[in-house]
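Much of what follows relies on a compact textual record of a protein's fold. A record is reproduced here so that you can trace the correspondence yourselves:

. . .
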Amino acid sequence: MPFHPGTHIIKMRNKKKQEKYHKFPNKEFLIRQNEIEAQKAELFKKLKRAEERLKTQSEMNEFNYHALFDTMTEGVALHQMIYDADGNAKDYLIKDVNSSFEKNLGIPADKAKGCLGSQLYLTDSPPYLDIYYRVVKTGTPYYFKTYYPPMERHFEISVFSPRKDWFATVFLDVTGFHNSQEELRKAKKEASFLSDLVENSSQPFTISYLDGHIGRVNHAFTLLTGYSKEELLTMHWSKDLTPKEWFDEDAAKAKELLVTGLPVRYEKEYLQKNGQRIQVEVFKHLAKDDRGQPDLFYSFVTDISIRKKAEEELKNLNKVLEEKIAEKTSELQGRVTELERFYKATIDREFRIKELNDYIMGLEKELKEINH
């Protein structure tokens, strides 16, 4: 390109990255140069502000990291994997721990930092080395639950690898929770056992609310009444199952139970689905809620029809027996009277015979005297 005095030739690239030469008069060149310098200065300021923001953000992230690290409920430990000469993982070095490390393990943080796992936990091989090595090798985080016998504690552990040959564990001592869950499991098992025991028992059983509506029955109660469970759960234990003449007795016993809190035992009748009456004995209890207020009734119901029938038969038998005894007693009394009469007659006869003998003997004596 020809050069002209008083001009500046500048090689520039357009948007298509094609190089072209542009001619600028000296004055225009200076203006253009000043504009470029101003743009460079503005760009520098923007970069500076961006750098400051990044620095502030980094400081904030660092602050937030340490705040989170130190205030976590979970214990956190940062480790470095240690290898033998053949490149096999043999131990790990504890680099840093948070304050909850001691709360969860009972091991002071100062004692743990810089200590090998095998030394800290007094084991030939540090705990869970195989799991931690797998995480370090694959970079895949892992979560597991475990029971650690030396400490007699249950833990939940999350492990991840933040960088090569390093891994971090986030763990929580869940022994209390585990024990609570175990107690809850046992309680549920026992409750299930008792529920099955009641359901399959031959003893009719029912639960009713204070307003009289039935809340639960077992199979034996359905056999006793002839109603299905679905039907019974829509019924009132007194109004629907009890003859009217027993209403007052039911109400009086319920009132007594609410006042004294002591179980009541009484006899009544139930109306079966087929319209027949059945005699039962009710052993009713009161259950209270968490505040100690009456909550519901539960009752063991016994079919006493057979017993009542036997009692009635025994009563009739006793009556017949008493009649027979009275009859026999009357008969025997008659015989005794007859015997008494006979005895008296016999005594009188013997007495007369004696008198006659005495008289004869007297005559014989007089006769002898006359003969002499």
